[in-house]
Amino acid sequence: MLKTLRLVIHRDLLLALRRRADVANSLLFFVIVVSLFPFGVGPEANLLRAIAPGVLWVAALLASMLALARMFAADYADGTLEQMLLAPAPLSIVVLGKIIAHWLLTGLPLVVLSPLLALQFDMPRDAIGVLVASLALGTPVLSLIGAIGAALTLGVRGAGVLTALLVLPLYIPVLILGAGAVDAAAAGLDPGAHLMLLAALLLFAATCALWPVAAALRIAVE
Amino acid sequence: MQIKLCTPRQTLIHLTFSRPENGILGVHESGHAPCTPRNAFRAGLKHMLEGIDLECVRGERALFRSLSFSLEPGALLRVAGANGSGKTSLLRIVCGLTPPARGEVRWEGASIRALKEDYSRRLVYIGHANALKDDLTARENLLISSALAGLEETAAHASEALERFGVGGCAMLPARVLSQGQRRRVALARLALSAAFPLWVLDEPFTALDARAVEDLQALLAGHLARGGSVMLTTHQEVAIAAANVRRLDL
C-alpha cells in the first residue's frame, strides 16, 4: 500500500515537473493577488497591517481552488483513472497519494512564499510565524476538501464553477480559523486555540475525505 | 480434504488430509507438478469467469438482457456485435468498473463485488483509452502502469516489452509525439509483462495496429492461452489464433 502511495505521489510530481507552467499558474495567481492589494488600498501601514491576514488567506484559498480542476480531470480523460480503480491497492490510497501530491505542488509553495509576501504588509514577526503555521495546517485541509468537490464534478460541464460552489462553504471555517489565528497573533493574543482547531480540522478531513472522494470517482467512471 | 501448495522450491504438492479412526490427522503427498509464479494460476486454483443473467441499461435503453457466458482457462471469448450494441459496456461490467443493472459476474464462483481487490489482482484491462500520459516517455508510462497493477518491473524488462511490440526505439520519447498505432502498442506492451495475471480483458486491442503488430499481439494472446490464461476481447476483425479454444459471443 505504501508502495502505491509513493508511486502515485512520484508520478504526479514527475508530471508536474514536465509541465511546470501548470504549477506556476496558481503560485503566480497568489503572488499577484496579494501584491495588488497594497497598490489598491494605498500605502497606509495600519490599514495594510489590519487587512494582511485576511488578504493572504483569501488569496491562498483561491489559489488552491484554482488548481482543483487539474486534480483528476486529466487522469479521467486519458483512461488512467480506470486503471487506478482496477489497481489492487485500495482506491483511497491512490486518492491520498493524489491529494498529497496536489498539496506539495499547490499548498506547500504558498506556505513557503507567504512570509515574503507578508513583509509587503508590514506584518509583525510573530504574526508571520503564525501565518506560516496556519497555512501549513490549513492548506492540506483545502486540498482534502477540494478533492471531494473535484471528484464530484468530474466529467460535468462547467465543473470549475460547480466545484467552487460545492467547496467554498466548506472552506469558510478554515478561512475564519486561519485568518483568525494570524489576527490574534498580530493583536498580541495567543493564537494557540485557532491553530489547535485547524489541526483538528486537518485530522478530521484526513480521516473523512478519502472515502467520499473514492466513491465519487467510482461513480464518475461508471 | 485436498489442499494444493506451492513450496519455495516451486513444486506443487497435492496434500490429502484424511481423518483416520485414531483421530490423528494424516497427510499424504499425492503429486508433484512444476509451479512457477508465472503458471501458478494454472496449477493452483482452476479459475473460471462467469457472467450470470447480466443486463445492461444505458440511458433508458437496455443494451442486452439475460446474457450469460463462461470463460475457462485457456479459452478466448470474442465479443462481437454492431456499434453501440454494448460490447464495451459488457467488458466494463466484467472488470467491475460498471455494475450491471441485473445479474452478477463471478470469478471462481465468488461475486467480483465481494472479491474487490482480490479480483483486481487477477485482471488486466486495456480499454479504449490507452491510459498514457503525454508528458511521460513510453517506458515511464509502461513502468508506472505496471507498478500500479502491482508488478515490480525493471527498466530493462519494460524496454524488452516495448521492443517486443516494435516500439523499442520510442522508449525514451514522450508519448505526445507517438502516432496512434504506436500509442496503442505502448499500451499493449503491458500485456508482455502481465503473464502472471490469468484474465485479460481487452477492448478493441487491434485498433490502429498494422499487420505486423496484429500478428505480434495474436502470438502473445496465443501464448497466454497456452499458459492457461483467459482472454476476453472485442474486435471487428477475425481472430486468427490457431489451436486455441476461441469462442464468439454475439450481442
What would your notes on this structure say?
The complex is a heterodimer of chains A (222) and B (251). With 222 residues, chain A is mainly alpha-helical. Chain A has 10 helices and no strands. In chain A, helix 3 (45-66) packs antiparallel against helix 6 (91-119), helix 3 (45-66) runs parallel beside helix 7 and helix 7 runs parallel beside helix 9 (192-208). The radius of gyration of chain A is 18 Å and the shape is elongated. The termini of chain B are far apart. Classes of the chains: A mainly alpha (222), B alpha/beta (251).
Write a brief caption for the model.
The complex is a heterodimer of chains A (222) and B (251). Chain A contains 10 helices and no strands.
Helix and strand arrangement:
The complex is a heterodimer of chains A (222) and B (251).
Chain A: H1 2-18, H2 20-41, H3 45-66, H4 70-77, H5 80-85, H6 91-119, H7 125-152, H8 159-186, H9 192-208, H10 210-221
Helix pairs in contact in A: 1-6, 2-3, 2-6, 3-6, 3-7, 3-8, 6-7, 6-10, 7-8, 7-9, 7-10, 8-9
Chain B: E1 2-6, E2 11-18, E3 26-34, H1 40-43, E4 49-58, E5 61-71, E6 75-80, H2 87-95, E7 102-107, E8 110-111, H3 112-115, H4 117-120, E9 123-126, H5 138-148, H6 155-164, H7 180-192, E10 199-203, H8 211-227, E11 230-234, E12 245-250
What characteristics describe this protein?
heterodimer; A: 222 residues; mainly alpha; 85% helix; B: 251 residues; alpha/beta; five-stranded parallel beta sheet; four-stranded antiparallel beta sheet; 8 helices; disordered N terminus
Which two chains have the most extensive interface, and how many residues on each?
A-B, 24 and 28 residues
Q: What's the number of extended β-strand segments of chain A?
A: 0
Overall pLDDT score of chain A = 92
Residue stretches of chain A low in confidence (pLDDT < 50, at least 5 long) are none
Low-confidence stretches of chain B: 1-45
Question: What best-fitting shape of chain B do the alpha-carbon axes yield?
Answer: globular
Largest sheet of chain A: none
